[in-house]
Write a structure and sequence with these properties.
Length: 195
């Protein structure tokens, strides 16, 4: 999946570094269904930086192996904190305590996938656009304002992880689970009327 939305102003370009990767938890691990704790305002900056670098390295390693993957939530690598890392179009962004503060009325149905269960894709219904506010690693407030549908779907998926909600719980009723490599052969996402 790719995004046409520009990164927020606080997103920083980082040079590729040989940071250690972390094992990605698989569906069935109970840690994936736990609600994550907020990141304390006085959290150790060195620890947060190390976690962020490891999460970003894990995204890049997964993408090199599977050919897709743009983001990961901390619980997917066993860190039960409200942190999400994005690596989109050469820009890396780490979000602390991200929160959806606006949702469009319009919704769209689309295929969703997950690094914790990369073999499959499922159909889900998501808001067509959301605004997400967060703190960056420097503690500054930032936001993705009325993000594009593609980026909005990604953000909603990752924030679900922070609340212990897996994509299979969002499946549209009566839709199939398909092998990830076959999703391009299935029906394209269909827009839903505003609700």
């Amino acid at each position: 999946m790719t995004s046409d939305a520009p990164p927020p102003p606080s997103a920083a370009m980082r040079p590729a570094t040989p940071a250690a990767t972390l094992p990605i938890l698989r569906f069935g691990d109970p840690r994936l269904e736990r609600v994550c704790a907020p990141v304390p305002l006085d959290a150790d900056p060195a620890l947060l930086a190390a976690q962020a670098e490891a999460m970003l390295a894990t995204i890049h390693a997964f993408r090199a192996r599977h050919g897709w993957g743009r983001a990961i939530a901390a619980p997917q690598v066993g860190i039960l904190s409200r942190i999400v890392a994005l690596a989109i179009d050469g820009v890396e962004t780490v979000m602390l305590d991200p929160e959806i503060v606006w949702r469009s009325d319009a919704r769209r149905e689309l295929w969703d996938d997950c690094m914790s269960l990369p073999e499959i894709a499922v159909r889900v219904l998501r808001r067509a656009s959301v605004t997400v506010r967060y703190r960056d690693l420097s503690g500054r407030e930032a936001a993705f304002e009325r993000a594009s549908p593609d980026l909005s779907e990604l953000l909603q998926h990752e924030l679900d992880h922070l609340d212990g909600v897996l994509m299979t719980r969002r499946m549209s009723p009566g839709t199939p689970i398909v092998a990830h490599e076959n999703r391009a052969l299935a029906l394209a996402p269909s827009p839903h009327p505003e609700e």
